C-alpha cells in the first residue's frame, strides 16, 4: 500500500518511472489507516523541526525540482505544438477565406445570370401574349373585313338587281304606253320613282325589300337536296310540296315543320299554350259528394302527374251558394279552362245552366268536355233516362245539338260517390294525357316512354320558349287604340334600307308603347311576308330568366338552327355561346332564302347589355335586320348613333280617343268639365305616355271602385307619373275588397310576386294562403288584371309593367326594405316542397335564386347538392345559371365535381329498389354529361361508367338504357380522340338498339349517325356514307309513320284550334284558314282530312273571290300535291295545269309564284316520263328567275342545274354542259368556292364528264367535290358532332320536348 508520503492529491501530475509521459493523478480508493492519515496531516501542517533528517528534506526538494523541470519541458513542447497548430489553422483559415470569396463571387454571378434569364423569360412570355393578342385582333379584324366585303359585294349585287328590276318596270310601262299611242318623253327628264321599294299595303313591305336575296323562296335545287348524299344529278328534295304558311316543308323533316309552325302561328287561345291544366267543375247539390271525393282523393294524383311534365294543375270550382257573386269571374274562368266537367243528376240551378250554356253550348269545340250523369239506383238506359228531370233532359239535348263533332264524353254511373269520382278521374287522366298534353298511350292506357328523351343535346327550356310565345300573344291581344301606323311605316322604311344596316333602335320613355309597337309590327310582317324569318325576345323584369343574356342568345341560336339542316353542334359554354352567335348568324343567313329579322324588346333591362351584346356592333349580314327597343334614359351611349325611331307622347287627340273608347265600352259618361280637366292634365311627358293614359282610362271606368267618378278623377289628377297612378290603383283595388283577410292577401300576393324570381302560380298562392278560397283569388286576380297590374305568363302571376313592380316596392315594401322578409317566406315554402321530395321546375328555378339573393351560401350549396335540383336545371339548359350558383358559393369546377360525387355516393347508399337504381343511373349520367360540358373529361368518365354498370346490373345488359350509357361514354372517348374505344361502344349500342327496337327505329338511326361521324373523322368516307344512307331511310320512314312526337302534337293541337275558326261565314280569311288546316293535316299524314279542307278552301275561294283569283291557284296547287301523294298523277297534272293557267293570266310574267307552279308541273312531267313537255317549263322558270333576281342569284343557278339535269336525262349533254358551268360560276361568285352547292354541281359535272368519256376530267371534278365535302365534315344527315355538346357526338334540331322532370 505504501506510506502516506507516496500519496498525491487528485489532479496532481505523476511521472512514469519508465520514461513515459506523465499523466494526471486520479482519485484511487486506497485504504489508509487512521495513524497514517494523522502522520500525513501533521507532516503537512506542522513546521519542519530543527532536528529533522537532511536526507528526507533534500529528497523532497530534488523531487520538486525534477518535477518542475519535467513540467517546463512538457509545457514548451505543448506550446510549440499548439503554435504550430495555430499557424496551420491560420493558413487553413486564409485558404478557406479565399475559397469563400471565390464561391461568393460565383454565386453572385449565378444570381445575375438567373435574374437575366428570368427577365428574358418574362419578356418572352409577354411577347407571346402580345403576339397572341395581335393574332386574335388580326383574326377578328380579318373576319370583320371579310364580312364587310361580303356585305359590300351583296350590296352592289342588290343595287344591280334593283336597277335591273327598275329597268324592267320602265320597259314594261314603256311598252304599255306605246301600245296606247301616248307620246313619250325622255326618261331622264321625268321624275319617276318607280325604282323605289313598293309598299303593297299600309305599312307592309312588298315581297322584295331591296333585292333578290330578300324575300326569295326555295327553288328547285333547294338546300335540303344539296345536303343529301350524292345520288347523281337529281331534282328538288321532294316532289310533294305545298303552298301557304308551310311552303316547302317536307314531312321527312318534322323539325322544320315544327319550326314553321312556331313561326307563323297566329294568336291562339290561351288554352292551347297555357302551362296550367285548368279543370272547370260544374256541379249541383246532388253531385256534391262526387265532387268532394274527386277533389280530396284523386286531384292530387293529377297534380303530381302534371308537375312531373312541367305543368300546373288547378281545380276551378265556384260554390253554388256564392256563384251569384262571381258572374264575371265564372265567365272568365270558363274561357281560360282547359277542360270542363259537368256533374248532373236531376235538379238544376240557374247558375249551372249559365255555366253549361257558356262552356258546352256556345263554344263546344274550344276545349275537351266531360259530362258525368248520376243515374240513381236504376240501371240501364231507359231507367237512367227516366230519372232525369225535364229541365235536365232539355239541357242535355241542347248540349248534344251543339256537339256537332261528337267531342263531348259522357259517363253514366249508378254506384257510390267514390266510384263515380274514380270514373271522373279515369276519364280526366285520359283527356289530359292524350288531348291536352299530346302523349302517346298504349291499349292499356299507359303512357309510352320516349326512348330518346335524354339522348339529344340540352338545348333550351320549354318554359322559356313558352314564356316568349305567351308574352308576344298577350301584347298582340291588347285592345289598344294607339295609332302606330306612322311608326310602322317608319320601321318598314328603316328595314327596307339598303345594307349595310346597323341595328335599328326604337326608343321612348317608360310606358311609351315600345313593346306594343314591336309586337304589332311583327304580326304584320308574319302576315304579309311569310318568307321572312322573325326571331323575337321580350325581356321581362331585370334579374328574371328572360333577362339572362346567355339564355337569350342561346334561344335565338337554337331558333335559327330549327330552320336549317346539317349544322354543327351548339356549345354549352356560356362564354362561347355569346362569342359564337355572330358566326352562327352569318353562316345561317347565307343559307336562308329570305330575310332574318331579330327583335329584342327592352334590351336595356339586361345587366351589362353593352358587354354581353357586343355582336350588335359588328356588321350584320345583308339579309339580316336587328331591331331593339330601349328606354331613352338607360340607352348605352355607343348605341345612340344607330338609326332611331323615337316614340313621342300621345297628342291630345289620341288621349281623348283612348279615354273615350274605354268610356264607351263601359257606358261611362264624362262631363265637358271633366274632359277639359283631363285634357289639361295630360300635357306633360309623364302624363301623356301610352301606359299612363291607358291606366287612367281603366281607373275611370273601373266598375268595382267604391269612389264616385268625380272623386276618382280628383285622385287621378293628383298623380303626376305612372308609378303614382299605380299606387292609386292599389288603393282602389283594396277598397273594392270585402274583408281584411282579402286585403291582406292582396298585399301579400303582390309582395311575393315582387320578391320572386319569375312570378308565382295560382296553385302556389292557394297553398301559401290556405285560408284563401279559389273564388276570392279569382276575383282578386280579375280586378288586378283589369287595372293592368298583373298578367299571366307560363302559368305564373307576373307584373304587366315594370312600373307596377316599382309601385309595389314603394307602397308595400317600403322601398325594398322588407324584400328579405318575403323572400324568406318563399324560401320556406319551396324548402318544404324540397323536403317532401317534390322537385319540380319551380323549385329548381326559385329556391337557389332566392338563397343567392339572400346571400345564404350554406343553404344554397345544400339545395344544389340535392341532385334532382341540379339535374332539373341542367336538363332544361340552365347551364350558365348552375355554374353561377356554384361560383357564388365559392367552389371551382373540380371541387364542385367532388361535392357531386360525395352526394351521389350518399344517395346510392339508400337505393335498393329497381326504380331508385334507375334514378341513380340517370343522376350519374347527368353528372357525367355536365362534367363533359365543363371540359372535365377525366372526371366525366367515372360517373358515366358507373351509370353503365348500374343499368347493366339493375336492368339487363341488353336494355335500351344500357345503349344510352354506351352512347354517352363513347362521346367522351371521341373528345379524347380515342376513336377505337368509341367505335366499339357505338357498335355495342347499335346492336342493343337493334335487338330492342328492331332495325328501323330512331335510336338505331342515332347510333348510325354517330358511327358515320366517327368514320368521317377517321377519313373512312365510304363506310360513313353507307351508314348515313341507312340512317336517312330510317328517319324518313319513321317521320312518315308518326313524325316527331312533339311536332306531331303541336300540329294536331293547332289543327283542332283552327277548325273552330272555320265555322263562320264564307270569307277570304276563312278560306285561308281552311287552306292552312289542310296543310296541317297533310303534315300529319291525314290525307283524307287534308283533301276535305283543301276542297272546302277552293270552293269557298271560288265563291268569294272568283274562279280566276290567284288564291284559287294556291288551293289547286295544294290539291295537286295531295293527288301526287296518292300517285294519282293524272289528276294532279290537270290541277297543276289549271293553277298554271290562272297564274299566267292573273300574275306578272316574272312573278315568283308562277315559277313555283311551273316547277311542280315540270317535276310531275318528269316523274311521268314526259321529259319533252317538262323542258319548256324549266326554261320558262329559269327565265322568270333571271328577271326576278338577276342573272347571278343562287336561285338562278339552281334553276340552271335542274334544267341541265333534264338535258342529261334526254342525252343532250352538249346543251347541259354550259348550263352546269354557268351555274358553277354563279354559285362560286355568290356563295363561295367551298359551299355545298358548289360541291353538288361539281358532282353533276363529274357525272356528265364520265358519261362523255372524259375520265380524267371527271376524276378531277369529283376530287374537288370531295374536298369541299371534307371541308365540312360535320354535315351529315342533319346531325353533327358537337365537341362541347352534352351528347358528345350528335346535334338534334328538335323542338323542345315535353321532358318529364324527374322527381324523387
UniProtKB/TrEMBL annotation:
Residues 653-812 form the Nephrocystin 3 helical domain. Residues 823-1061 form the Nephrocystin-3 TPR-repeats region domain. It comes from Pygocentrus nattereri. Residues 272-438 form the Nephrocystin-3 alpha-beta domain. It is found in: Cell projection, Cilium. This is Nephrocystin-3. GO terms for biological process: cilium assembly; convergent extension; heart jogging; Kupffer's vesicle development; pronephros development; visual perception; Wnt signaling pathway. Residues 501-628 form the Nephrocystin 3-like N-terminal domain. InterPro entries: NPHP3-like_N, NPHP3_ab_dom, NPHP3_hel, P-loop_NTPase, TPR-like_helical_dom_sf, TPR_NPHP3, TPR_rpt. GO terms for cellular component: ciliary base; ciliary inversin compartment. Keywords: Cell projection, Cilium, Coiled coil, Repeat, TPR repeat, Wnt signaling pathway. PROSITE patterns: TPR. Residues 86-180 form a coiled coil. It holds the Pfam family TPR_7. TPR repeats lie at residues 963-996, 1113-1146, 1155-1188, 1197-1230, 1239-1272. The keyword rRNA-binding does not apply.
